[in-house]
User: Fold this.
Amino acid sequence: MKSSVKHVELLDHLRGIAIIAVLLFHTLSTAYGYDALPWRGWFRDFSVPVSFLCFLPLSFGQVGVAIFFVVSGFCIHMSFQQQGQRWGSFFIRRFFRIYPPYLAALIFFALFLLLHSRLNYHSQQVWMQHKFELPQLASQFWLQLLTHLFLIHNCLPLTFSGIVGSFWSLAIEAQLYLLYPALLALVAKLGWRRTMVILAGCELLIRGMDGLIQTMGATNTIGGCISGLFARSPLGYWFSWALGAFIADAFLKKQPLPFIKTSPLWWLVVAIMSYFVKPLESFQFLLFAVMTAVVTSKLLSGAGPKIKVPAFSLDILRKIGLWSYSIYL
Assistant:
């Protein structure tokens, strides 16, 4: 695939794959009322309709958001490095690129829910899903709207997906943009590899604690609340997002790309296995992010398998990728 420093066409293809995966994942909830196999102790329960088992691969929708996060990290770092490393103009461009369409979509869906008197029902579903006991005030419309307006709705389980289920990732991405200067500061002091080791340790710890809390059924304890807060925070996704920036930095400097000697198949197998084991399920996003980083590095370096794909298919995928943010909204 041809690529230039200013625009890497491969990223459009990856975004196309990501948005298709996310859309297919959400069709399960619409069709069956749930999007994953239920738990029976530590393992998944296969006592579901046979038709759902036929569509079970669609349950791995997290791969789509993981792809988006890695691609986002890549694009943010490449954009900042190319455009003069000026923080003011960088954040202004990010704001006007992301927030206005998000605001329009948010107002539309908020009014839709309000007019159809469904917000309280949806909030109750989220409440039960996360098993948190919050004051009744938290279910009010204005709490949902204000937290979404300021992109902090990921901080509370009730508002995490209170208006639109997919908007949680936009809040975390926006917060990761704010952490980007801290990432570069760490890199300037420690270098990329040490920084990535620290971020990996942080995300592994957060996800490990969240998996332990979920397995123990202690989400409504003080420890569970704290663990859940970190798991929903940008710190719980910082390494996954920074993987893209790590690759972009090597790509821009024309250095050997990381992970090109690693097999993506191994990461894919482990990510799929984590779906079926409750203590490991919290690591699924991280594993898919690493797999995405491996595939990205291999394709950018030309080390990936030579697969012949019809040109028109790639063009369609590229166009879907270019429209992925609008489709996501």
Notes: Residues 9-328 form one domain. The mean pLDDT is 85. The first strand starts at residue 39 and ends at 40. The beta strands are 39-40, 43-44.
